[in-house]
Amino acid sequence: MHEAQSGAVRNKPGTVLFASLIGTTIEFYDFYIYATAAVLVFPKLFFPAGDPAAATLQSLVTFAIAFLARPVGSAVFGHFGDRIGRKATLVAALLTMGLSTVFIGMLPTYAAIGVWAPLLLALCRFGQGLGLGGEWGGAVLLATENAPPGKRAWYGMFPQLGAPIGFFLSGGIFLLLSEVLTDAQFFSYGWRIPFLASALLVVVGLYIRLKIHETPDFQKVLDKGERVKVPVVTVLRDHTRVLVLGTLMAMATFVLFYLMTVFTLNWGVSALGFSRQHFLVLQLFAVLFFGLTIPVAALLADRFGRRITLIVISAAIAVFGLVLAPLFGSGSTTQVTLFLCLGLALMGMTYGPLGTILAELFPPEVRYTGASLTFNLAGILGASMAPYIAIKLASEYGLQYVGYYLSAAALVSLVALVLVRAK
Q: Can you tell me which residues the record assigns to a coiled coil (predicted)?
């Protein structure tokens, strides 16, 4: 008997779900502390002094690097995930992401080493993207390929919960540091703490990941001798239509999230007059709605179908884009809070079933590569430049054009969902 086969039998639902959740929580925590620091810290410490707006835009370019690295991670880790197995690949992806994050916390600043500082920052950011490119797909497959009949979306939403939990942890630690440290202390050493603390989370994640076993679906691929030689080539050659439509399906999810987090934080602090602490509190409160609507969406997706659920939510996001400027641009704490809560609630509704539907688009022998590549190509289209584009649009044309940008992305995703063949 194969070890993977006996392992698949021994997998307990609680262990599987926690292993998929803890990994994505760590990965998204790492990713989001960078996003927060890209707005609050890096423009001042890692780029030449001068125009603050230019430094912020340069910092957001390094933020975008990870999204370019994620498809590379999808291809590399997806190859081994579809050839060797889900478990070993997940461990390697977690280490890649975690070590890159810890190294960021140890980097010297521009004042110490000049131009090498942003270059090393960009290199570590590439490592973050590489790791996340392999992590997400494996975590979703770990959950969905162990799911009982009729509960695939429910199981598939557990790794998705890592996003709001990771964001809450990252926002919470920055808020705590803002409260207990002076600005001088924060910019001197305090900003490093969230990055270095990632090491503790990685140890916990590795411990849990090493206790799991191979998924039943991958064991069947092994038993039938159906592994393909180069999964990424098979995906690009034989599943091109699905890859393109899946990427467009997920695009609005990325645009929405990074507008609601990175862009709103930047604009709220710089243009609307909120303090860093005040706006982080509003975001953390709104993230609760993100987390609460993920399981709601999963239940709806199991009952009515993943595709129909996402079509309805994409239409709702398109409408939401039209109220972005009046609510967010008001500068009123009440209206800004309502805006954040609505936007992140919609985010949870679209994000909950997303992992499951992307995994179901591909057969088991290329599923790790296909789902990961689709998700991360959508990240390039929808998220890599979203904060940069939104800031340019808001600065040059007004906030209403940021809303039009979001609505357009939602309509693109809606059309792709209408065209795709999915449950």
A: none
